[in-house]
Amino acid sequence: MQKNNMEEQILLVAKELFMQFGYEGVSTTQVAKAVGCNQALVHYYYRTKQNLFKIICQQEIQKMLKILADIPQEDISFEDFIEKIIEAQIGFLKNNPDAPFFIIGELRHNSEVLKMMKELFSEFGKEIVGKIRLFVQMKQSKGELNDVSVEDLLIDIVSLDVMSFVGQVLFTQILEMDSQTQEAFLERRKTHIKKLILSSIKS
Amino acid sequence: MQKNNMEEQILLVAKELFMQFGYEGVSTTQVAKAVGCNQALVHYYYRTKQNLFKIICQQEIQKMLKILADIPQEDISFEDFIEKIIEAQIGFLKNNPDAPFFIIGELRHNSEVLKMMKELFSEFGKEIVGKIRLFVQMKQSKGELNDVSVEDLLIDIVSLDVMSFVGQVLFTQILEMDSQTQEAFLERRKTHIKKLILSSIKS
DNA sequence: AACCTATTTAATAACTCTATTAAATAACTC
DNA sequence: GAGTTATTTAATAGAGTTATTAAATAGGTT
User: Fold this and answer.
1) What pTM did the predictor assign?
2) Helix, strand, coil share (%) of chain B residues, nearest 5
3) What is the pLDDT of residues B99-114, one digit of tens each?
4) Which of these, A197, B94, B133, B190, has the minimum number of CB atoms within 10 Å of its CB?
5) CA B34, CA B126: separation in Å to the nearest integer?
6) pLDDT at site A4
7) Distance in angstroms (rounded) separating the CA atoms of residues B140 and A118
8) Given CB atoms, is A122 within the 8 Å cutoff of chain B?
9) Cβ proximity of A116 and A51 under 8 Å
């Protein structure tokens, strides 16, 4: 391989491996081998495995929460609002298929991930919920929307989006779906989720 | 500890550890220490770590799918039908809080878990979907129900149930919820999920 | 070219991990 | 109680892990 920027290469390759196999599932020796450099170099640039992992976690979790934070602010219908959120989330998941597995898999026992989630959530969490609440209240004041819990709404959308993805991976393996069928499955889920969410809150 | 049945003790303790920390996150030395026996005993009874893990996986995944397979067959309303399924799932998750983290966490890279899911799904999967389809068709023939995709319905319910649980663990840590608040959160989600599911399919 | 600094490697210390072996102990069977 | 089998342990081989060190190499500057 021997790309000129080894520091970045290591981070990139380590990200892929950690995301797929988890913290304990990857050794610095494996990272070095995959990069094509000496194992000591991994430690030269990032000192410890913990530290390398921490940097990667921070980047990835931040990326994920950014998706939620990037709520459309224009004056659109509630239907389009929901659609855009779902679209953004599924889009992100398509580009980062390992993300939910990584987060859920590490969350259960990796205190580093937990701490990071806590930190980044207290940074972005209120902002995200606040933005959506604002939009919902605006629509409510116009009489276009019933009473609705923003927290439940968010949990519902994230739940359905994330698990569509987990399901897709599962079914891909179990039912031997080809990539075309996978794509179709996700598209079907996307419209289904939108319909499901909207059916419960239309005024 | 030194309970008289070491073979069983090892399985029990190993289950707890594997469920929380995953395959790579647990060593046979740790298992032995937690049980209070010699490390070689773990291998005496189960030969390899792989094999021990496999046995535990089989048991746990089977338990999970059983929950889905135990669909109420009595002549009840569709509303009660959905409620019972949700009740059963949330109940199971309360007793096995690590289960979704374990499955999703291992699914991404542990071929053993994947293979097992594949095997057990082809054994129970069709049965489960078939049972629900039968119930749905029965209700449809009576005109009590719209057209509905059984697959989507199942994915929806499982998604919302499982992620309520993942969310609960997350929020417990992030928002420092006490056990009473956790219980309330789950109860609220339970009724919310039921309402959400039903709102989309009532005829 | 000589010097300096940044990058990369080989070697290795100090562990830990899995799995096996042989020996010790406990539990039965006659 | 002697003999047989089952359970449990100590010891250890062999491989792999993280992290450090000193040495080698590459790049840039004067």
Assistant:
1) 0.92
2) 80, 0, 20
3) 999 999 999 899 889 9
4) B94
5) 39
6) 67
7) 46
8) yes
9) no
Q: CA-CA distance, B86 to A100, in Å (whole number)? A: 23
Handedness of CA A46, A48, A51, A52 (dihedral sign): positive
> Both tokens of residue A29?
């020796």
How many CA atoms are closer than 13 Å to the CA of B76, on its beta-carbon side?
A: 13
A113/B contact by beta carbon, under 8 A: no
**Residue B121: closest C-alpha in chain A:** A174
CA distances from B170 to A68, B38, B174 (A): 16, 36, 6
Compute the distance between CA of residue A188 and CA of residue B66 in angstroms, rounded to an integer.
Answer: 28
Whole-angstrom distance, CA of residue A120 vs CA of residue B198: 35
Do the Cβ atoms of B122 and A152 come within 8 Å? Answer: no
**Contact flag A22-B105 (C-beta cutoff 8 Å):** yes
Å from A2 (CA) to C1 (C1')? 29
Q: What angle do CA B117, B121, B124 make, to 5 degrees?
A: 140
Residue whose token pair is 């049980």: B35
Tokens representing residue B42 in the block:
């773990």
Q: Inter-chain contact A164–B156, Cβ cutoff 8 Å? A: no
Look at A105 and B100 and tell me if their CB atoms are within 8 Å.
Answer: no
For residue B37, which nucleotide's C1' is closest to its Cα? D8
Mean pLDDT value across chain B: 92
Q: Is the pLDDT assigned to residue A142 strictly greater than 80?
A: yes
Amino acid at position A155, single letter: I
Tokens of A38: 């000496």
Calculate the angstrom distance between C1' of C18 and CA of A151: 47
Tokens of A116: 């990071």
Strand partners, B202: B145
- Strand C bases contacted by the protein (CB, 7 Å): 7-11, 16-22
